[in-house]
Fold this sequence. Notes:
By secondary structure, this protein is of the alpha+beta class. About 35% of the residues lie in helices and about 25% in strands. It starts with a helix and ends in a 19-residue tail after the last strand.
Amino acid sequence: MTDERHEFDLIRRLFAPLAASRPEALGLLDDAAILPPNADTELVVTTDCLIAGVHFRTEDPPETIAARALRTNLSDLAAMGAVPDCYTMALGIPNECDETWLTAFTQQLGADQKTHTIDLIGGDTVSTPGPLTITVTAFGRVPVASAIRRSTAHVGDNVYVSGHIGDAALGLALLKEELTGIPEPDMDYLINRFWYPSPRTMLGPALREVASAMADVSDGLLADLAHICSASGVSAIVIADDVPVSNAAKRLIDGAQTTIETLLTSGDDYELVFTATPSSAHHVQDIARETNTTVRRIGIIQASQSPMVALVDRAGTAIALDLPPGYEHQW
């Protein structure tokens, strides 16, 4: 990657095909892309930076790294009800990421672009002594004044979450050999949940007329619900037994290899946690069926008090948390 001619050749062969369907990308031949204005929609923009050894393991396959890099941004768009449109990507590439690695990386991006209807429109590639660094900026569109915010939850709203919680953390624990004696099907399922998040790009936009507030679960369910509560000036009660967990996770809980508290405070799920009025409960479930997504009511929003998010059992008894409520990026 140190040879400029080699860099441009790689862009032409590996990255330009990812932008081929977007005239705005100008074939990746210019210094920038040109996005046309649209009077009917607003642009939602999100940026995530992923660093080897921090957000993924250096030994992870390139396909899994590509999937996480793009899908984490797609999850941010879904959390605001935005439909994916396009993205840019900056790569800091160390020498060990050779052309074979880059080919697998871009092939996965191409597959994800088709699945989620999004295209590359620009970016940058540079050499670095390490670590591998990937920065994706994703653009989505929403009708004017219809984006879903974190700051608009109301007292009395129900709290919902999509999918299953905690699988990704268990997958990472398996990759780090912190769990043992797990059946191979469960291992494969949990590891893939870490490597290949499922951004809710259909569910998020479908909830624009229903959800009062929403966030994606990246730092941990309780932590991301707390972000909604903080922004909205409210608090929440979560019923631990109502939080959806996969059969693989249940087996690990039954085998005392993990706890529900651990799953609720672990990150990388990339599900959606949202609030909605009790009167919209049937509408929420209709949307869940239409988007083929599991959605479960897990709690309620109440007036601001401490703790901001309280975890209780079905009888309403508080469950003490000996763990931090979620992951925080530190430096």
